[in-house]
Design a protein that fits this description.
single chain, mainly alpha, Helix Hairpins, 0% strand, elongated, coiled coil, Helix_hairpin_bin_sf, nitrogen fixation, Put_N_fixation
Length: 64
């Protein structure tokens, strides 16, 4: 498997994880004020995954 194919597979995986994190954040917001203490943790996870996804997309763009 080439580096580009590996990167595409990683992007697909990260995209799925980032979408799930987005939904987790959305679900948490709808349940407020219940579990408000989880906001920083859930938001950080969402931020980190979307950041990794953006970086991987930039890598693919540079490799292409």
């Amino acid at each position: 498997m080439s580096d580009v194919d590996t990167l595409k597979a990683e992007i697909k995986k990260l995209s799925t994880q980032a979408t799930q994190a987005k939904m987790d954040l959305h679900d948490l917001s709808e349940e407020l004020p219940t579990d408000w203490q989880k906001i920083p943790e859930v938001a950080q996870k969402c931020y980190d995954l979307h950041s990794r996804l953006a970086a991987a997309r930039e890598q693919l763009k540079a490799a292409g």
